[in-house]
Write a structure and sequence with these properties.
Strand order of the largest sheet: 1-3-2-8-5-7-6-4
Strand content: 25-35%
Number of domains: 1
Number of helices: 8
CATH topology: Alpha-Beta Plaits
Helix content: 10-25%
Oligomer: single chain
GO molecular function: oxidoreductase activity
Structural class: alpha+beta
Distance between the termini: 23 Å
Number of strands: 8
Largest sheet: 8 strands, antiparallel, barrel
Radius of gyration: 17 Å
InterPro entries: Dimeric_a/b-barrel
Length: 225
């Protein structure tokens, strides 16, 4: 069975953009990819997930320091390296990046291999955890797969992404978890009360540097296909 590779980024918006204007600016940026043949060929699917803005029931412990997570499914591992040197991408997309983001996309992008733990639907709302291991520890998908019934069992889809290769400064994460839910209210109900990190299964909680990790509460604001 072939490995599904991804590029995943954790983005901050250009401060000149209001938080509510960021998703549209991001969609406009993504549209430039239609002019880049190699982007169309190498990136097989896009899930732009923007942060759910302030509302009642937002889980305790989610980050407000970032504005979005992009989940890009790649043709193969080599695509993650090739795309940074693609002539069309450098000419068409890179000059637009500072308009939308706080810095260039390469500075906040990670490459990871995907392991699906619960194979269900991407239902539009996703809790994304960027996990950093404590020194001398290792975060493992097995420790999440054996999680107690709640709140992870309420997810329609659960994916573990193992980070590979280099990590940009400030983005030294070891794994990225996607937990997909039916709705914003379903997430609020599943993670009611204690902070999100409280709900990690014990073996995983013992290995995670929660102070150095990030949890994003997002919804899809653009997808391809």
């Amino acid at each position: 069975m072939s490995v599904q590779w991804k590029m995943i980024y954790l983005a901050r918006r250009n401060p000149a953009l209001a938080p509510e204007d960021f998703p549209q600016a991001w969609r406009e940026h993504s549209a430039l990819g239609r002019e880049c043949r190699n982007v169309q060929d190498k990136v097989k699917a896009v899930r732009q997930c923007s942060r759910v803005l302030d509302r009642p029931g937002v889980p305790n412990g989610v980050s407000v320091d970032y504005d979005g997570v992009n989940l890009l499914s790649l043709r193969d591992r080599e695509a993650a390296d090739d795309i940074w040197n693609d002539e069309e991408t450098l000419r068409i997309m890179r000059p637009d990046e500072p308009r939308v983001f706080s810095t260039y996309v390469r500075d906040f992008t990670l490459v990871a291999s995907e392991q699906v733990l619960v194979d269900g639907a991407e239902t539009g709302v996703c809790l994304v955890l960027f996990l950093r291991a404590l020194p001398g520890q290792r975060v493992r998908s097995l420790d999440l797969a054996s999680a107690p019934a709640a709140p992870w069992s309420a997810a329609t889809r659960l994916v573990w992404n193992e980070v590979a290769g280099g990590r940009p400064p400030g983005y030294e994460y070891d794994a990225i978890v996607e937990a997909w839910y039916e709705s914003v209210d379903a997430v609020a109900a599943a993670f009611a009360g204690p902070p999100v990190w409280h709900w990690l299964p014990p073996a995983l909680a013992d290995a995670v540097d929660t102070a150095g990790s990030v949890c994003m509460f997002t919804r899809i604001t653009h997808r391809r296909p």
